Amino acid sequence: MTDKEFAYQYALGTLSTGALIKIANTSTSKYVLTILSKNIDWYIRKSVANNPNIPIKIITKLSKDKEWYVRAWVAKNPNTPIDILIKLSKDKDDDVKGGIARNPNTPIDILIKLSKDKNNFVKYCVARNSNTPIKVLTKLSKNKDSYIKKYAKQTLLDKGIKV
User: Which class for 160: exposed (0-12), middle (13-18), buried (19 or more C-beta within 10 A)?
Assistant: First the structure.
C-alpha cells in the first residue's frame, strides 16, 4: 500500500484496528509511522514503538508517551538511542525498566544499577541480558527469587561460566 492509499483509507476509517497494528509493525514508511504514532489507541502506538524501522524522531516522541506499555516497547526496541535508554531507566514503571534491562544496547552501568532495583521483574530482566557483567550475574544467581536465580545461572552458562 502506498502512502497515498494509506492516507486515503486511514482518513475514511476503512482500516480495522488489526490492519493498523499490522501496518504499524511492518511499515517502512516514515509518513505512515508518523501518522500511526499519533493514534489514540495505545496498542497501535505500541506497535509503532516495536517497529525496527521507526525513525529516531518518533522513538523520542513515544518514549514520553503517557501509557507505560508504549514506553516499555520503546525501551525494548534495539534501535532506541542510548540517551533515551538512560532516561527511560529512571521511569517509575517497572515494565519500562524491565524493557531497558532486556535491551541488548543498554549500557553496562545501567544494567548494574537495575540489578539493584527493588522489583524482582526488573532484576529478572537483567539476569536474562547477555551483556550483564559476570560479577552481577553471579550475585543474581544467589538471589532468593527462583526465577532470577535460574536465569542468572543460565546466562552465566551461556557465557561459558560454570555455576
Answer: exposed
